[in-house]
Predict the structure of Glutamine-dependent NAD(+) synthetase.
Amino acid sequence: MKQLRIALAQINSTVGDFKGNVRLITENILKARAAGADLVAFPELAIPGYPPEDLLLKSSFIDANLRALEEIVTASKGISVVIGFVDRKEELYNATAIIHEGKLASIYHKIYLPNYGVFDEKRYFHPGSSCPIYEISGVNVGISVCEDIWYDTGPATVQASGGAEVILNISASPYHHGKHHFRERMLGARATDNVAIVAFCNLVGGQDELVFDGGSVIFDEQGNLIARARQFEEELLIADLDVESVFHSRLQDPRWRKEGQQLECDCPTDRIMVSAPRQDSPRAMLPKQITPLLESDSEVYKALVLGTRDYILKNGFGGVIIGLSGGVDSSLVAAVAVDALGPKSVHGLIMPSRFSAPLSADYAAKLATNLGIKTFTVPIEKAYTAYLDSLSEVFRDTKPDVTEENIQARIRGTLLMALSNKFGWMVLNTGNKSEVATGYTTLYGDMAGGYAVIKDVPKTLVYRLCRYRNNQAGFDLIPDAVINRVPSAELRPGQKDTDTLPEYEVLDPILLAYVEEDKGVEQIIAQGYEPELVVKVARLVDVSEYKRRQAPPGIKITPKAFGRDRREPITSKFREGG
Ligand SMILES: Nc1ncnc2c1ncn2[C@@H]1O[C@H](COP(=O)(O)OP(=O)(O)OC[C@H]2O[C@@H]([n+]3cccc(C(=O)O)c3)[C@H](O)[C@@H]2O)[C@@H](O)[C@H]1O
Ligand SMILES: Nc1ncnc2c1ncn2[C@@H]1O[C@H](COP(=O)(O)OP(=O)(O)OP(=O)(O)O)[C@@H](O)[C@H]1O
Ligand SMILES: NC(=O)CC[C@H](N)C(=O)O
C-alpha cells in the first residue's frame, strides 16, 4: 500500500531567536524521526519567526537565518524536512527548504504574497514562479506556503493537476474568532476539488498583536478530516496518509479529467526527486488523532491567554501589575494574566479615590483572593489634592470638568508605572474595544501600559468571557457583584458609562458595523439604529484615532482590529459623524 507517515510540527518559534528556534526545530525533527515519520513539516518562516517585518531589511538578519538553515540541514538525518525560511537570491523570497539526509534538496518560493489586513509581504518579498512536485518516499507531494492555498486555481491545483497526491501547505495563519471554521472549509474544499490529501501545518504562539492558533489539520482526498492538532498549543501531529486511495478516488471521480481548465497560476510543475520509497514492509496505520474544536468563548479566552503569555515572556518580563478597580475589565485582565503567567507573577494595585464606591476596593480584594494574587493599596486622595492645589491658581476662574476626572486617571497611570519601574513588572492595560473605539479613556492615564490584553474585545464580549471563566472555575472566580454592577469610571460623583455612551448592547453592534464592516452612517441607520446615535458614535470613533495611535499594542481577536488592520488617517476632513 502506498502510504506516507507525515509529522506536522506545530511549533511556537520566536521572531529573531535563531538559537532557540533551531533547538525547537531539531528537537521536533528527532521526535518525528523516532516516531517513524517519512516527512516532518514546520510552519511558514519557522526559522526566523513570523512576521519578521522590517528585520527583513537587515542583511545580518537574513545571514543569521541562512546559518540557522544550515544547522537544520545538518541535523536532518533519516527523515525529509520541509521548513520555512527567508531565501536570498537577487531578491528575498518567503521560502521553504526541502531537506533530506543532511542535504538541501530543493527550495520552493511562495507565489501568492498577502498584502491586506495585517499582512505586508510585498514590502519585502518577490513572488515565486514555479510549483514543483516533490517525490518524497515515493509519494508525489505539492508544497506551498500559506496564502498559496487560499486560491482555488492556485499552486495546489496546479500541483494536483500535475500529479501531486498530497498537498502540503506550511502556514503562519493568524487567529481571529471563528477563523478556524472558515479555514477548514477552504482546506476541505481544496482536498475534494483536487482529489488530493491536504496537510496544513500552522504556526502557534503570540507575536506582538497577532496570535497564531495552530489547529493544524489533514483532510483526505474526499474532504474527510483525518487529523487535527490542538488549538493554541504546540503539538507534533503524526498521521499515516493512505495515498493509495487517492489513485482510486481519482479513477472514480470524473471531475478529475478536467482538460483545458483555466488556472490562475501558470507556473511550471517540474518533478524533483527527494527520497526513494521506503523499503520496509507496510506498517499498521496509526490511530486517527482529531482534537475537537474549542467553542467560541473558550477559543477567544485561550487566544488572550496565549497572546499575553508570549508577549510578556518573550519580552523577558517576570511579572505584571494591573490596576484593580473592582470592575469587569480589570477583573477579566487579571484572570487572563493569572492563567497566562500563574498567580505569583501577577500583582494588583488598588487605588481608591474620593469617588470610588465603598465596595469597589472590596470587590477588587475579593477577586485577588480568588485568583491568589498579591495586591497593594495606594489611595490617590493625597496626590489628587496636591494636583488640585497646585493648579488652583491657574484654574481660578474655571469650573471642574473632565480635566479633574482625567487627573485621577493620570495619577493611577503614574502609580502603576512607578511599581513597574521599581519591581520590573509590566503594566497590563485594561481598556476594551468599545472604549478604545469611542475614545472613552484618558490619554496618559488609563491608557498607560505595555500591553493591552482586551483592546480588541468589545465590552459585551468582556461580560461573556467573565461568565465563561467563572463556568470553567465552577464558582464565581470573578465575583458576581463585579459582573452585575453598573459600569462606571468612578471619576466624579455618581458617574456611569451611559452618561457618555449608549448601553453597550446598543453601542457594540454599531461599532461592529462602523469599524469592522466599514459600513457608512447611512447604511447603519438603515439597519434600524437611531440616526442621532449612529452619527454620534461615528464621530467618537473618527475623532479618537489620535488616541489609538498612542495606545499600547494588544491582541487581535476580531477580523478587524485597531492597528495595522485598520489604517485610518488622524488628520482627515472626511467625518461621517460630522
Ligand atoms: N487630533 C489630536 N491629536 C493629538 N492630540 C489631540 C487631538 N485631539 C485632542 N488631543 C489631545 O487630547 C486631549 C483630550 O484627551 P484626554 O485628555 O484623554 O481627555 P478626553 O478625551 O477629553 O476625556 C477622557 C474621557 O474618557 C473618560 N474616561 C476616562 C478614564 C477611564 C474611563 C473608563 O471608563 O475606562 C473613561 C472620561 O470620563 C472622559 O469622558 C486634548 O486636551 C488634547 O491635548
Ligand atoms: N480605584 C481603582 N483602583 C485601581 N485601579 C483603578 C481604579 N479605578 C480605575 N482603575 C484602573 O483604570 C482602568 C479604567 O477603569 P475605570 O474604572 O475608569 O473604567 P472601566 O473601563 O469600567 O474599567 P473596569 O471595568 O476595570 O472598572 C481600570 O480598569 C483600572 O485598571
Ligand atoms: N501568512 C499568510 O500567507 C497568511 C494569509 C492567509 N490568507 C491567512 O490569513 O491565513
Q: What stands out?
A: The radius of gyration is 27 Å.
